[in-house]
Amino acid sequence: MTRAVIVGSGPNGLAAAATLSAAGLDVHVVEAADELGGGARNSEPLLAGLIQDHCAAVHPMAAGSPYFADLDLPESPWVLPEIDCAHPLDDGDVVLLRRSIVETAAGLGADGWRWQTLFGPSSRSFAALSEDILRPLVGIPRHPLLLARFGAAAALPPVWTARAFAEERTRALFLGVAAHAFQRLDQPLVGGIGAGIITAGHAVGWPVVAGGTGTLTAAVISRLRERGVTFETGRRIRSRRDLPPHDVVMLDVHPHAVAEILGGSLPRRTAEAFRRFRPGPAAFKVEFAVEGGVPWRAEETGRAGTVHLAGSAREIAAVERDVAEGRMPERPFVLVGQQHVADPQRSVGNVHPLYAYAHVPAGYTGDATDAVVSQIERFAPGFRDRIRAMRVITATEWSQRNPNFVGGDILTGAKTPLQFMLGPRISAQPYDTGVPGFYLCSAATPPGPGIHGLCGVNAARRALRGLVPAKRTREAQPA
């Protein structure tokens, strides 16, 4: 039986294991950490029973992923908040993003029809659109007209697209979602991540996993064990000599680690491309236990699963530019996760978990705790008085906990136009390493970060295509 080794047990490593095991391969997963799952885990760091997601938290792209449908898990893991996302403003107003595009548009006044024109066709046809946007963008699209329509929001620099809206509050809502790219918002293609999240959200919502993201990871691992996949933790692969016996290897690791593992086996240009692969800005996370919940000035904000704290569109563009250029802003973009709104079991009585992180420069070594708290207090006066406990995860600690998060970059690579489209090197085959039998399947490859698993699925399918001619060659050799 053909044996596959998966290096790394993050969402894409598990997805590659699922695809290869379904094809009949003997699959073994090797994980450097003591716990499987990479960034798709949860814990109770502040209070017993108070559940906090580790990294991946809100999953619009995953809920519509064909990978999870193919896994046929015993029950749906997804739960939805009443409001997907809220963007409070300094004047006390709040702009709301709902699963229903009609309800979202109704709250956008004169911009409602513009929002529906921009995102309606793509969201209504998201299943078809995903066949193009959840695979490498280089190649012949399966739905060219639909992809072109989506490109109207995805290809232009987000600050240009925002000009299509007449009202400042709509521009702020749009740029707040676009900021998920952790990049300057005046560059082309950077809007692809935000446009994808908005489109997927109007199709399936912005769900969280019931019981924490790690609950879904545990279900996936259980299903893989049923298929015969084996797992090994606490084993770091530093070179080819460290690998178990294999016919094919899937690398759910950072391109820098691929260059280390494969060393002189890599073609020179590929090795250079992997070594110069750029990390993006970092996340500085603060987890809170909040008694009575957050006292948001705009009451509807408390019913949203995700909250963007950054003020106006102009402010968002400015702070994201500063962070991308290595400057720490006084008031950074802060993303707040209120997963307990959709999943009350995460709370303990009247104490609720709050997940928050600020966008900070790559490799940031300072302390952004007060900046995060101040941004929440800005839109929720009295928040500080409700904090019962908190834990900080700095950019440095992210990289120590997960080698894929170089310098605290939780997206596994800067989503600049070229890196977002092509991955770590210019090639029509972004999963190939140039070494026969070795494939890159991490979030450094298209379609990028998230627990949707499509980087792993796409890479594994590429590996399976490579195994067929290799098998034929062996069979053709004389005995």
Automatic annotation (TrEMBL):
InterPro entries: FAD/NAD-bd_sf. Gene3D superfamilies: FAD/NAD(P)-binding domain (3.50.50.60). It comes from the Bacteria. This is Putative dehydrogenase. It comes from Microbacterium testaceum (Aureobacterium testaceum).
